Amino acid sequence: MAREHSHPFIPYRPTRYPEAEMAERGRRFYEHLDRRRSVRFFSDEPVPRECVDLAVMAANTAPSGAHQQPWKFIVVGDPETRKRIREAAEIEERQNYEGGRLTPEWREALAHLETTSDKSYLETVPWLVVCFAEKYGVRPDGSRVKHYYVNESVGIACGFFIAALHEMGLSTLTHTPNPMAFLAEICGRPANERPYILFPVGYAAPDAEVPDLVRKPLSEVLG
Questions:
Q1: Looking at CB atoms within 10 Å, which of 13, 122, 187, 210 has the fewest?
Q2: Are 164 and 58 a contacting pair, CB within 8 Å?
Q3: Which helix (DSSP H) or strand (DSSP E) does residue 192 occupy?
């Protein structure tokens, strides 16, 4: 049936698979993602910049409110800038862990992860990628464009980014130091952008360890 549109539309015919293959593909994808872990022990081995760019390209395919794509991914490879980010992050984290900013409930929730204010991995990894959320857009004349569902949109994009890194054999961590305003300053970002997640990107160290976590079974996450 022919449809009339006020804006450009194009045909979309996604690939369809036999039911048995659908389930097998879904199972392989799940098992692949289930092997992913957040890493805090990284190698300093170089990683091709192309791989980071490809992960950002994958993130940029995420759905977003009104297709406004309210995200910016800033890639930091310069050692001095990575050092500045580490130092600033640790100042905030020391306030959390040693300065009493973490509530007892928060400390209890984090205990099994054994996290500390030491963020030395921010200097070890070859790349830091900072995702910024655009609170609003800016037209060439300086006027603002309202953005919709910013947190939801940027969160989905970051999920795609993580999955793409894992697909390439790279590791990362969703680091969210609080507050994160120092990232906007160090990265020289405009006022309409706020730091969302800081991703260290690299290979896991040969002796890396991760908490022995068990994910919730399907019966607990499927309502």
A1: 13
A2: yes
A3: none
Distance CA 145, CA 140 (A): 11
The pLDDT value recorded for residue 101 is: 87
Compute the mean pLDDT over every residue in the chain, rounded to the nearest whole number.
96
pLDDT tens digits, residue range 134-143?
999 999 999 9
Rounded Cα–Cα distance for residues 71 and 193 (Å): 8
Q: How far apart are CA 161 and CA 127, in angstroms?
A: 14
Q: Which residues contact 174 (CB under 8 A, 6 or more apart)?
A: 38, 158, 162, 197, 199
Q: Which long-range contacts (CB under 8 A, 24 or more apart) does 172-176 make?
A: 172/38, 172/39, 172/199, 172/200, 172/201, 173/38, 173/39, 173/40, 173/121, 173/199, 173/200, 174/38, 174/199, 175/89, 175/119, 175/122, 175/199, 175/200
b vs e for 131-160, b when ≥16 Cβ sit within 10 Å of the residue's Cβ? bbbbeeeeeeeeeeeebeebeebbbbbbeb
Going by C-alpha positions, the residue among 29, 89, 36, 86 that lies closest to residue 210 is 36
List domains and CATH numbers for the chain: 40-204 (3.40.109.10)
Rounded Cα gap, residues 82 and 130, in angstroms: 11
pLDDT tens per residue across span 66-118: 999 999 999 999 999 999 999 999 999 999 888 888 899 988 999 999 999 99
For residue 46, the model assigns a pLDDT of: 98
Determine the residue type at 98.
Answer: E
Mean per-residue pLDDT, 48-72: 98
